[in-house]
Design goal:
Layout (H helix, E strand, L loop, with lengths): L7 H9 L1 H13 L18 E5 L2 E4 L4 E4 L2 H4 L8 H13 L8 H13 L5 E5 L2 H16 L3 E5 L28 H5 L1 E4 L4 H10 L4 E6 L4 H4 L1 E2 L2 H14 L2 E5 L11 H6 L5 E4 L10 E5 L1 H4 L4 H7 L14 H16 L2 H23 L4 E3 L4 E5 L19 H5 L7 H10 L2 E2 L5 E3 L6 H20 L4
Parallel strand pairs: 3-14, 5-6, 5-7, 7-9, 9-10
Antiparallel strand pairs: 1-2, 2-3, 4-11, 10-11, 12-13, 13-15
Helix pairs in contact: 1-17, 4-14, 5-14, 8-10, 15-18, 17-18
Bound molecules: pyridoxal-5'-phosphate.
Length: about 450
């Protein structure tokens, strides 16, 4: 980690963000580390946003930036899109919580069923974390088995069953606050060794309830997994009666309108959805096989004599999220917004890689469609930025791909130059990022690399 002191980049950042710093000091009095989401933690302090529109954000000091954080992946049409504002305003007038069933939840559910190929039945939740929790419990109840297999560094939210084994935990033994009974029943598998995963599943199939994964790989593709491994997992779990859970919280409606499963033609038993699902408002949905979701069905439980899996949730399919979700998914279904976001992502990668090549910096932008990551090459491998193939790299290389010692200053430099990256670092691209936004992002990259070079960090 390069020192944050004595850096011109830091000085420039601090000079531009005085009001954000003042707010951060208030935040420190309230929240651990001053933030309410770990990914927003940033040195020396995070910026505070006042308002946002399209793909632009304005911070407390009036600085404008091109936004590539995309509401942690929940935005496909940028901020305050007129169609979503209209739908949400209309619903506010009609009431935000009838504590009753309502037509908008039906429309929302019908759109999910239309778009996601494996969705025979669904239940709405309030978040991706909750949805994965429900998936795991259903899988255990359905199979009568205990163990969950998850993959190193794949992220599935912060609840107990999946809070360890991700890159946010130092190691798999470092799980303060989690019951040993849960830890003993979660196997953290190495995603880089498909042969041993298969063997693991075959040898322990009697006690494995489910395999959960991010199908495009850890960090939604920052560490790519590949279709062949996913296909192998589908075939193996199907043979062994293990429930396969796709976490499509990020990839759903983004990789394709029907998620990774539609794009790759591999159907899981259960899928967790969130983010774009709610059009930028809170919401999640567990979708999948009817016989598994029927474990939550009052009638099925009564007729078949089993104990129903309970599922409550004050804000499940709340009318505001449902209204935004319907407006969002209607456009996913009827327009080309998913394709457009993916095309813009491809263009951004090409632009950024031409900057890396021109500047002689051995970094590379890669990723699937609208999910863009920057390989910062901490091992200083000899690579050609414009021909870097993340899929053929050893997983260990990609797992540390964002960890260049200058990564923090790089992010600050990009902010100084008017671009807000995601923390990986990377860019979550939307359908409202236009050519001039991408050109600005390329210019910001060039200027930021120049700043890093001036400090002998590259
Ligand atoms: C792949 C994945 N799964 C699950 C989650 C958790 O979703 P939520 O933040 O809605 O609880 C996230 C959130 O970033 C995610 O990226």
């Amino acid at each position: 980690m390069s020192s944050l002191t004595n850096s011109h980049i830091l000085t420039e950042f601090e000079a531009k963000t005085k009001k954000s710093k003042a707010r951060h000091l208030r935040g420190l009095d309230l929240f651990p580390s001053g933030v309410v989401h770990d990914s927003r933690y940033m040195k020396p302090y995070p910026i505070y946003i006042e308002h946002a529109r399209g793909c632009r954000k304005w911070d407390a000091d009036g600085n404008e930036s091109v936004d590539f954080y995309g509401g942690h992946g929940s935005l496909l049409l940028g901020h305050a899109h007129p169609s979503l504002v209209k739908a949400i305003n209309r619903q506010v007038e009609l009431g935000t919580h009838p504590a009753a069933c309502h037509e908008t939840e039906l429309m929302w559910g019908e759109l999910v069923k239309l778009l996601i190929p494996s969705a025979e039945r669904l239940r709405f939740t309030a978040s991706g974390t909750e949805t994965n929790l429900m998936a795991i419990r259903l899988a255990r109840a359905f199979t009568g088995r205990n163990k969950l297999v998850r993959f190193r560094n794949h992220f599935h939210g912060w609840q107990d069953h999946v809070a360890f084994g991700s890159k946010f935990q130092k190691n798999t033994a470092d799980v303060p606050g989690i019951l040993s009974g849960i830890i003993e029943n979660v196997i953290v598998a190495d995603p880089s060794a498909p042969g041993s995963i298969r063997q693991l599943l075959v040898s322990n199939s009697d006690d494995i309830a489910a395999v959960i994964l991010e199908p495009t790989g850890a960090g939604s593709g920052q560490v790519p997994l590949g279709r062949d491994v996913v296909k192998m997992l589908r075939e193996t779990t199907e043979k062994l009666g293990i429930v396969l859970i796709f976490d499509e919280v990020v990839t759903g409606f983004r990789v394709s309108p029907g998620g990774v499963q539609a794009a790759w033609g591999v159907l899981p038993d259960l899928t967790a959805l969130a983010k774009i699902l709610g059009g930028g408002l809170p919401g999640g949905a567990l979708v999948g096989r009817r016989d598994i979701l029927d474990l939550m069905d009052f009638n099925a439980a009564e007729i078949q004599g089993f104990s129903k899996i309970p599922h409550q949730g004050t804000f499940n399919a709340n009318p505001l999220s449902a209204a935004a979700g319907v407006a969002m998914l209607n456009q996913v279904a009827e327009t080309n917004i998913t394709t457009k976001a993916n095309e813009q992502g491809e263009k951004l990668k090409a632009l950024w890689n031409s900057v890396f090549a021109a500047e002689g910096v051995p970094w590379s932008a890669y990723g699937l469609g609208s999910s863009v990551y920057i390989f910062t090459n901490p091992g200083n491998l000899k690579i050609d930025p414009e021909n870097f193939d993340a899929n053929t790299q050893p997983m260990a290389v990609m797992e540390s791909g964002g960890n260049h010692p200058a990564a923090t200053l790089f992010r600050l430099a990009m902010l100084v130059n008017g671009v807000d990256l995601s923390s990986k670092p990377g860019a979550i691209v939307s359908a409202v990022h236009e050519e001039d936004d991408l050109a600005e992002a390329a210019e910001a990259l060039r200027a930021s690399l120049t700043m890093l070079k001036a400090e002998a960090l590259l």
